Amino acid sequence: MTLAEHEWMNEVRALVGKEYGRVYAWDKINAPMIRQWCEVMGVDATRYTAEGAVIAPPAMLQVWCMEGPVANNYPPGSTTENPYEALKLLEAQGMASVVAVNSELTFGRDVREGERLYYTTRLDSISPEKTTALGTGYFVTLVMAFFSEQPQGDEEVGQLLFRVFKFRPANPVKPATDKPAAPVAAKRPLPGISDDTRFFWDGARAGKLLIQRCKGCGELRHPPGPVCPSCHSFEWDTVEASGRGTVYSFVVMHYPEVPPFDHLNPIVLVELEEGTRLISQIVGIQPGEVRIGQAVQVEFNSFNDGELVLPQFRPVAAAAQGVAA
Known about the structure:
Layout: H1 9-13, E1 19-24, H2 31-41, E2 49-50, E3 53-54, H3 85-91, E4 97-107, E5 117-126, E6 130-131, E7 135-148, E8 155-169, H4 198-205, E9 210-214, E10 220-221, E11 236-240, E12 244-253, E13 265-272, E14 277-281, E15 295-303, E16 308-315, H5 316-321
Antiparallel strand pairs: 1-5, 2-3, 4-8, 5-7, 6-7, 7-8, 9-10, 9-11, 12-13, 12-15, 13-14, 15-16
């Protein structure tokens, strides 16, 4: 039996197939950004230099046209259209919840140093109304087509398919009563623990920063894994790090605001004295004062009523003075 569709969906479905204007990249494809991306991702950047021509890693395709840390800060000439207007119309019908379903990148060819990219967005499809465990709503699929500007005519170099489920929750919030229940404090999510990572979290509970070490070649590695990427040995043990290091890189999370994390939320990539790097939060400092090269020291803090212990880092000066987080 096919259910009759809501009349208000006619306006939403009328948008299917609509193409939204160009969003340009701030910069042309360039070697410094490729090198930095490869360093952060732990990829050998030299593999993308062939016969003197710099080639961007395919997985960077979406990166070139991102707006940066300021939301909707796109280069001059970019469209001001909102490609998510179908989602806004669904929100107006009470389907305010959203969950990303899948994202698929496809590549037409490698992009090279000096090329300038842009993308356009097409509302590809909207599913029939679906009822899931999360609630009732619609799967909305958008396709971003990436182009390289060329004198002889712009060339499509790849696509990004992005699908979300826009829905009305199955268990909506109950209306307030005369005696509202006390709000439940949000807890930090617990890490996924496997046989490869259990030592790290056990060490944190004991106040130790343990790093995985290959028994074959002695290389330290983090995050932990079952096999050494250098010599492919499956044999490993651990070494207790000093906990001292420097800020190698950092980001400050502005959006979304996710309780119970602080807002703004500074996240650092710390290079330990032992040579390996790990991602953590930095505490005891204002987000705008974090600097690359800053000396930091690990400390172990408990959350969720002692259920979770996390290694976090504090600037050395602040640690010496006992400044509260």
